[in-house]
Amino acid sequence: MNNTAPPKQESYMAVRPTAFSVDQILSFDLYRSTGGQITLYRSRDYPFTRDDLQQLIESGCNKLYVPESQRNLFYDHTRRRLPRLLKDESVPLEEKLEILSETSVNILGRMLDNPMSSEEVSGVVSQCRNHVRLAFIGDKARNTMVTNRAQAPFPIAHAVSVANLALVLGMDCSVAGADQLHELGIGALLHEIGKSQLDRDYYYQPESCKLRNDPRMEQYPQVGRDMLKRTELVPPGALLAVAEHRERLDGSGFPAKLKDAEISHAGRIVAICDYYDERVNGADRQTPATPFEALSEMKQAKEKFDPAILMRLVEILGRVSKN
């Protein structure tokens, strides 16, 4: 170990000790905050043991730092460690979900920068498995998934929230098996990916988004589906959710004006989750709707949204509010 100050020209990102394994720590530099100052704790030139990590945690150290230049390496390691972390009963659920969300934000952001990269698309597909794993832990985990919100620009936080909510709702709507849920989660996380092809700034500057008055707007679900299909890495169920989440039962949606049974189960689930989160958390509204108001709007528009799925959402939110 060494207490020499790290290079001043480097910027750093805060991470939690529970996001690490000792083997992964050996892959990147590690810093800690002392008296409000970031000081060198370990570089890759210095050894680090399991006892060292345990000592940090037991001493109450809940925030470490890695250089921003190693951000992607860190989150790749975290994604691979998450299956084990999610099973660790000593880690609080809230912390598990925060680490999961942070990792998803990073991995989705990288895909947005390079949407046709097989490596980046594979990373998103793989990360969705971790959302499914958390959903299978139990009711308390699913309640946490419904209430947690990622720290990110609205469209990215929206994508993660819709994915979490769609998985919880899907399980309540008899979407059976991890594979089907995985496809639903991928479709929900990537449901707006077509907007990034029409406006490169959409995911990062929604307040100045040019899409609102753009006649191409109604084509973004199809644009997203076609883009993802070309990668040959996204399963069919996810592609349906992306293509159909703006369709409505009465045929008033877009892009294909589908009606009733023409809309897939996944498309109906993501449609409801997308509308609900947009109304409650939408960045472009000065006065967001309350959950009650958003649900009431969908109930009044019963000809547009699947009433059975909507009732399941009402029940889920009711359970969450009681806990």
Give a structural overview:
With 323 residues, the protein is mostly helical. It has two domains: 1-70, no CATH class; 92-322, Hypothetical protein af1432 (Orthogonal Bundle), CATH 1.10.3210.10. 55% of the residues lie in helices and 6% in strands. The chain has helices at 22-25, 50-58, 71-87, 93-113, 118-135, 139-147, 154-172, 178-189, 193-198, 220-231, 236-244, 265-281, 291-300, 307-322; strands at 12-15, 30-34, 37-42, 64-67. Strands 1-4-2-3 form a four-stranded antiparallel beta sheet, with no helix packed on it. It is globular, with a radius of gyration of 21 Å. 40% of the residues are buried.
Q: What is the CATH top level name of the largest domain?
A: Mainly Alpha
Task: Report the C-alpha radius of gyration, rounded.
Answer: 21 Å
- Average pLDDT, rounded to a whole number, is 87
| Arrangement of strands in the largest sheet | 1-4-2-3
Structural class: mainly alpha
CATH topology of the largest domain, by name, is Hypothetical protein af1432
Query: Biggest sheet, in brief?
Result: 4 strands, antiparallel
Can you tell me the number of structural domains?
A: 2
CATH homologous superfamily placement of the largest domain: Hypothetical protein af1432
Helical stretch tally:
14
- Give the termini distance in whole angstroms: 44 Å
Which geometry do the CA atoms define? globular
Number of strands: 4
Helix coverage percent: 55-70%
CATH arch. level architecture of the largest domain: Orthogonal Bundle
> Beta fraction of the residues?
5-15%
SSE blueprint and pairings:
Elements: E1 12-15, H1 22-25, E2 30-34, E3 37-42, H2 50-58, E4 64-67, H3 71-87, H4 93-113, H5 118-135, H6 139-147, H7 154-172, H8 178-189, H9 193-198, H10 220-231, H11 236-244, H12 265-281, H13 291-300, H14 307-322
Antiparallel strand pairs: 1-4, 2-3, 2-4
Helix pairs in contact: 3-4, 3-5, 4-5, 5-7, 5-8, 6-7, 6-14, 7-8, 7-12, 8-11, 10-11, 11-12, 12-13, 13-14
